[in-house]
Amino acid sequence: MEEEKDKKQTDGQPVDGYLGDEKLQTGEQPEDEFQTGEQRLNLTMFAEKISRLKEQIATVLVGQEQTVDLVLTAILAGGHVLIEGVPGVAKTLLARLVARLVEADFSRVQFTPDLMPSDVLGTMVFNMKTGEFDFHRGPVFANVVLVDEINRAPAKTQAALFEVMEERQVSIDGITFRMDEPYTLLATQNPVEQEGTYKLPEAQLDRFLMKIIMGYPTLEEEIQILERHHRQAAFMKLETVIPVLTKSELLALRTYMDKVLVDSTLLRYMALIVQQTRISKAVYLGASPRASVALLQVSKAYALLQGRDFVTPEDVKEMAPFVLHHRLVLTAEAEMEGYTPLKVVRRLIDKVEVPQ
Predict the structure, then answer these.
(1) Mean pLDDT value across residues 206-228
(2) Nearest Cα to 4, choosing from 259, 261, 263?
(3) Rounded to two decimals, what is the model's pTM?
(4) Sign of dihedral through CA atoms 130, 131, 137, 138?
């Protein structure tokens, strides 16, 4: 394929506040990935599995289609998810439902202010019969782990999750215990309650692949919720949900991501978006290279969920806010101006030219 370079320069559109830098240019690069005659993925089986997952979720959960897509994207990408929302919007229900649909080991831990690291990871217990110490595993030893109200535990307990979230292992008394694959941590938190809660460390937030904010249902969705509860027959209980995927099937679906096509211009587009978080006057702490890798993985997984074996600029633009906004720390001036991390990320994304 012949190389084409478009050197058109466009003037950026300034925005008010701290986000008024010039618009960046991604430039055109040779589309090396899209070679003619390259074998394409057959996504028939993949589409069937994802369709069944969404159908099962819809029997229990009303609405929240975007949230469901994001959670499935994160699980397919092999990352951890932080779900934030006010009480009663089905955060825990969604996490339990997704875990139920995957026929894998599941555990749940309720974070509380008095929770200790050993309560999460496990501890060595002396065995009187053998005269040796035996390791009693904590709730993190599962394929899908639900951490409910994660912001209720103190900093030392939060720090206990650092190693297992990033390296998929736990080190106790000089012994390293590896986690089985797949391994995904689904955490929930309440953004409005202040009593008995602790702010998550930036190092831990950076280990979450995505942060999803669950809002209130629409009027029509809330009416449907009431109708389901009024007619018990139309409301399927979580215990009756039949698993759709096995562990081996989920791991097999993840192998599809290795064959998803990503053009070099899109890699540059992702890098420019992340770079913007580091040079913006509204941001005190920008996104790390881990965020760039996360954006790539999430974009590939989202493209597969849309039935494509290639990533488009729209995929990157759609996923970037959920991958980046929880990793940013805004300046005091930006917060006083009324900016939020999500609003800042969306404006920074708009400043980078979309590749053609």
Answers:
(1) 88
(2) 263
(3) 0.80
(4) positive
Q: Rounded distance, CA 268 to CA 260, Å?
A: 17
Kindly tell me if the per-residue pLDDT of 346 is higher than 50.
yes
What is the distance between the alpha carbons of residues 88 and 64, in angstroms, rounded to a whole number? 13
The listed CATH number (2.120.10.10, 2.60.40.10, 3.40.50.300, 3.20.20.60) that belongs to domain 79-239:
3.40.50.300
Residue 166: which residues within 8 A CB-CB, separation 6 or more? 207
pLDDT of residue 123: 85
Is the distance from CB of 236 to CB of 57 less than 8 angstroms?
A: no
pLDDT at 192 over 60: yes
Distance CA 297, CA 352 (A): 20
Beta strands (DSSP E) in 202-306 are: 210-213, 245-246, 283-285
Q: Using an 8 Å Cβ cutoff, are 165 and 205 in contact?
A: no
Nearest to 268 by CA among 291, 306, 296: 296
Q: In which residue are the tokens 């993925």 written?
A: 41
Q: Determine the Cα–Cα distance for residues 178 and 197; give it in Å rounded to an integer.
A: 30
Backbone dihedral angles phi then psi of residue 62, each to the nearest 5 degrees: -95, 130
H-run or E-run covering 81: strand 81-84
Among 296, 290, 289, smallest CA distance to 270 is for: 296
Produce one character per residue of 125-155: b if its CB has 16 or more CB atoms within 10 Å, e if not. eeeeeeeeeebeebbbbbbbbbbbbbbbbee
Instruction: Classify residue 353 by its DSSP letter.
Output: P
Is residue 338 over pLDDT 60? yes
Report whether pLDDT(37) > 50.
Answer: no
Which among 261, 273, 328 has a CA at the least distance from the CA of 36? Answer: 261
* Structure confidence by residue, pLDDT tens digits, 122-150: 888 888 888 888 888 888 998 888 898 88
